[in-house]
Amino acid sequence: MPTTVAFETLTELFLNLSRKYKNAGKAAFYYKPTPDSEYQPIFWKQVSDDVYSIAAYLLEQGIQKGDRVGILSENRYEWAVVDLATQLIGGINVSLYTTLPAGQCEYILQDSGAKIFFVSTGLQLKKAVEVFENCEELKEVVAFDQPKLEHLAEEEYVRMFEDVLSKGGKHLSKKSETIKKRSLQVHPEDVATLIYTSGTTGKPKGAMLTHHNIVSNVKAATQHIYWDDKDRLLSFLPLCHSFERTGGYYAMISSGVEIYYAESVDTVSKNMPEAKPTIMISVPRLFEKMYNLIVKSVEEGSDTKQKIFNWAVETGRRYAEGERGLISLQKKVADKLVFDKLKQRTGGHVRLFVSGGAALPPEIDTFFQCAGMNILQGYGLTETSPVMAVNQPGKERVGTVGTIIPGVTVGIQNLEDGKITAQISGEDYPTDITSPEGEILCKGPNVMKGYWNNQEATDEMIDEDGWLHTGDVGKFDKGYLKITDRIKHMIVNAGGKNIYPGPIEDMLKTSKWIDQIVVVGEAQNYMAAIIVPDFEAIAKFARENGLKYSGNEELIALDEIKEIYKKEIRSFSKDLASHEKIRDFRLVANEFTVETGEITPTLKVKRRVIADKYGHLIEDIFKDDE
Questions:
Q1: Residues 420-438: pLDDT tens digits?
Q2: Given this model, what pLDDT does residue 625 score?
Q3: N or C: which end of the chain has fewer CB within 10 A?
Q4: Confidence at residue 200, expressed as pLDDT on a 0 to 100 scale
Q5: Architecture of the structural domain at 10-186
Q6: Read out DSSP for 490-501?
Q7: CATH T-level fold of 490-625
Q8: Phi/psi zone of residue 522: left (φ > 0), alpha (ψ -120 to 50 degrees), beta?
Q9: What is the pTM of this model?
């Protein structure tokens, strides 16, 4: 649907939403004061009052147009207030992942030259205090929560958010004209935010996204997918990531959607039935976990339960493919016996699942489609604000990331000769274009201005003709975009065959025994894998079979456990080409995490880190092949 108000900048978006809803008793956000409490609304009047108060405070502290304001916080109401206040006076939002260690926070604060740093909990305040002296431009730190360690709050440059809000309110009357003047000076081509790419290699780079970049993407998304002011969204993906920022925040409020904040990423399954969202924006990891839990439950059930489940999935598949008549009646029975239970876990009201950030395994996509809970898989980059393509309700195609959104042009470039073999603009929606595989390129109003303080990286990313090079390999299939993998992830085996590990890993991740997996085999005669087991599954197997062990290291060393994975790998490899088959593997005792450095804050695997950390295991796999 069209957005509820007209706007060309994020500043105008806030101003016009505030005017429309300020006295209408309309809720903008919902939060939980305590884990045991119910969700409480925050109405637009309070949002408006708080944003103006923080804007007044920022002006009082000397924040000028174009100055950077840092935010290190989980998704919560205060994050939105600081962001909207920053946009209101022409500042630039620099938000950081809460999982970043202090050293990386320091780098981003120094690189961006942030003047004020807002942080959430005591844990995040501790990082800010640790790096403050090394950040010359940083004037003060504002904490949302009172820290348990009192000495952190006693630093002369630390302020509490409630105090800042109160102080800003007192200055509002004398700052109101300046706020109005500043808001009128914000133009579409001004930089609204620096989003630092988490990156699987090298130092983070600050993508400069302008108001026009984000606004054009918001408007295109709302044309492509329908949502309105009767919808509610559960927000849990990091707001410092462009996917949640554009799709789960700006696009939502622009259409009057109410945003419920999850207590944390770990409480999503608990918060879904409480918030009863109609829209869920997520990464594949959530859907993978839901799918694996269901499969485990079925496999542990009786033969009758398994037969009913398999029948329900087959019925759902036939219904999804358009069969009606008797199948319609059978689908109602399948829903009642099987799928309604899954829907209740999500709150029972979800009508739109949107997935991005990584590839969604086709098997999982198909299962949710059979359940009548279609997932709209999309695609984009931080540098494209982020959406380039997404499936539309009723037009989903499994294994693709959908059609190109309005205003955006996507091209496929031959990897060998550099020629563009096909391109589609979002207004075209052709169904007859199929192209060979190549690098995905993008042009449009959503393409970033460049990287902050890094012209060399900007020139590497955007060529002289204005094409942004994504580094991803894909192709068009009857007008739909399909992603193969990252160019940098491509493995070239000893025989010169090009192998993309992503699709292989996605397939194997549907195994109930596998939590995480990385395929290896560069310059080798065969493929192998480093596997993080599903420890809950193998611990249960060990208990049921009387196996003795102490800790994960001993558990994965058991021959009986290794045999499970040998059989599983053999079974899955049947569907792979001979040069793609996994011939060997090693199990590891610890999960890949952001904290230990193996994955990015957006849950992408850092292959180089894993190759270094588990190099001894990889060497052991291939030692007899030399």
A1: 999 999 876 677 899 999 9
A2: 62
A3: C
A4: 47
A5: 3-Layer(aba) Sandwich (3.40)
A6: -EE-TT--EE-H
A7: GMP Synthetase; Chain A, domain 3 (3.30.300)
A8: beta
A9: 0.85
